[in-house]
Amino acid sequence: GVNNNDSRGALIVLEGLDRCGKTSQSSRLFPYLEGLGHSVELWRFPDRSTSVGKMISAYLSNQSQLDDHTIHLLFSANRWEKRSMMETKLKAGTTLIVDRYSYSGVAFSSAKGIDVEWCKAPEIGLLAPDLVLYLDIPPEKAAERGGYGSERYEHLDFQRKVAQYYQILRDSSWKIIDACQSIEEVEKQLREIVLDHVITCHKGKPLSLLWS
Ligand code: 2DT
Fold first, then answer.
1. Residue among 175, 123, 165 at smallest CA distance from 14
2. Is 192 left (phi over 0), alpha (psi -120 to 50) or beta?
3. What keywords appear on the UniProt entry (predicted)?
4. Of 48, 100, 101, 109, which is best to mutate to test ligand 1, by the most ligand atoms within 8 angstroms of its C-beta?
5. Which atom of ligand 1 sits closest to the CA of residue 100?
6. Whole-angstrom Cα distance, residue 144 to residue 124?
């Protein structure tokens, strides 16, 4: 690898509506960075493999019902249970490409009518991403892409609300990518931005915490 002992990995988060292309783009970034000799892992939230993750998965597939606040805290707990592993990996020089993070947590729960600040509170102290890539697509366009699956949030009306809350959460550090472009064009733009950030983190940019 290209890492020396004291260089850390980058925490790179992909966000966006359902069907915006996050998952395919994450899986394209992975071999790209690996091919350049970087240590890299692909993560996603919710992580459905843990016991908390299994509760979340049952909820999303409508096999269980939970109060909106309760499921919000479970999504947050699912990030907290991975926090120390995340820090260990980053400090060991591994770059993490993460498909959804706290911004999904806040945007989706706020879209149900829960107060934004309440939604942010349990996320305070989680590791802040070095880079947030927002794959921007109008909800109507996303809905046209092979349609939604059968999970709880996969409805146009709800996705419209989520888009509004992503809008409120985004700050000037986010990189907004037009996700209506071809897969190849989006991939090309992501590669440039991501590589730049990986190198900055290797040079010793300190880790920071949410929300900052
Ligand atoms: P996937 O389809 O990407 O597996 O997402 N969600 C996700 C939340 O409501 N809160 C969260 O904290 C996270 C990470 C977004 C499953 C759905 O779960 C939503 C879509």
1. 175
2. alpha
3. Kinase, Transferase
4. 100
5. 14
6. 36
Residue nearest to atom 16 of ligand 1 (CA): 46
- Its pTM stands at 0.96
Report the separation in Å between the CA atom of 104 and the middle of ligand 1, taken as the mean of its atom positions.
Answer: 6
SS3 208: coil
Helix segments in the chain, DSSP class H:
22-35, 51-60, 68-91, 102-110, 116-120, 139-144, 156-169, 183-202
* Residue 150 exposure: Cα atoms within 13 Å on the Cβ side: 4
Q: Is the peptide bond before 46 cis (omega within 30 degrees of 0)?
A: yes
| Residues with C-beta less than 6 Å from any ligand 1 atom | 45-46, 60, 75, 100, 104-105, 108, 153
pLDDT in tens, 122-176: 999 999 999 999 999 999 999 999 778 889 999 999 999 999 999 999 999 999 9
The tens digit of pLDDT for each residue in 27-48 reads: 999 999 999 999 999 999 999 9
* Residue 113 CA to ligand 1 centre (angstroms): 16
Task: Say how far apart CA 208 and CA 28 lie, in whole Å.
Answer: 27
User: Which pair of tokens denotes residue 88?
Assistant: 């260990």
